[in-house]
Amino acid sequence: GESVGLHLPTLSVQEGDNSIINCAYSNSASDYFIWYKQESGKGPQFIIDIRSNMDKRQGQRVTVLLNKTVKHLSLQIAATQPGDSAVYFCASSTYSGAGSYQLTFGKGTKLSVIP
Amino acid sequence: DAGITQSPRHKVTETGTPVTLRCHQTENHRYMYWYRQDPGHGLRLIHYSYGVKDTDKGEVSDGYSVSRSKTEDFLLTLESATSSQTSVYFCAISVLQHNEQFFGPGTRLTVL
Predict the structure, then answer these.
(1) A105 contacts on B by Cβ (under 8 Å)
(2) Under 8 Å CB-to-CB from B93, ≥6 apart: which residues?
(3) Region A28-36: what's the mean pLDDT?
(4) Which of A25, A40, A81, B54 has the greatest count of CB atoms below 10 A from its CB?
(5) What angle do CA B27, B70, A36 make, to 5 degrees?
(6) How big is the CA angle at B29 (ends B37 and B110), to the nearest 5 degrees?
(7) What one-character-per-residue DSSP string does B54-110 give?
(8) Percentage of residues in chain A with pLDDT exceeding 90?
(9) Which of B13, B43, B11 is nearest to A92 (CA)?
(10) Are A42 and A36 contacting, i.e. CB atoms less than 8 angstroms apart?
(11) Reduced 3-state DSSP string for A14-71
(12) Could you tell me the end-to-end alpha-carbon distance of chain A, in angstroms, rounded to an integer?
């Protein structure tokens, strides 16, 4: 899940296992969600997105699930590989008025893949 | 990095000096953003632009100004750098504001 402290939540998984990374958002008016991957020393990389009219979306080896009732989304990575080691964070988009949208980012979860 | 470059990639400066960071895109996207990333915080929006000469403030805009004179360039200026502005700065672009944003490689700024 998302952390409010200085230390990121960590998830360690064995290579080949599936990973599940969770994210809670606070604004029930959020209607668009994105997952990013950030490797050390690099910029965030877009993984997958989902709009609020869907509850599941699949990409290559990744699936995002959205539960609007409890304001929760998750990222599932199938057959986790060493290259998946990174910090993963979610972002939620909310209409902020005057035609503008605000993207709010979570603090991230560090995924470590054990070879 | 989706055709986004940032310069410089690293900079060390002293308190009170002006600093300008540049973001350049080759995608011709309308929206451009400046974020800062600090331990214990998610990415926080400083300023964004929705077109040439059209900019607006974000969550943490105090001490920063921006300019966009061309579609491809978005400049972030710290008029008088402070130690609290030591951070990693990311530029991002998007086609529409309610779409995914693509990020540049970042600029690590240290203010001594």
Answers:
(1) 42-44
(2) B2, B4, B25, B27, B29, B31, B32, B33, B101, B102
(3) 93
(4) A25
(5) 40
(6) 25
(7) EEEE-TT-TTEEEEEEETTEEEEEESS--GGG-EEEEEEEESSTTS--EE---EEEE
(8) 79
(9) B43
(10) no
(11) ECCCCEEEEEECCCCCCCEEEEEEECCCCCCEEEEEEECCCCEEECCCEEEEEECCCC
(12) 24
CA nearest to B34, candidates B87, B82, B74? B74
pLDDT computed for residue A5 by the predictor:
35
Asked whether A36 and A88 are in contact (CB, 8 A), the reply is yes
Q: For A32, which residue in chain B has the nearest alpha carbon? A: B98
Contact list in A for residue B21 (CB cut-off 8 A) is none
Using alpha carbons, select from B15, B7, B10, B13 the residue that is nearest to residue B72: B7
Helix (H, G, I), strand (E, B) or coil at A83: helix
Two tokens, residue B99: 């779409």
Q: How many CB atoms lie within 10 A of CB A8?
A: 18
* Residues whose CB falls within 8 Å of the CB of residue A98, separated by 6 or more in sequence, listed in order: none
Q: What is the mean pLDDT of chain B?
A: 94
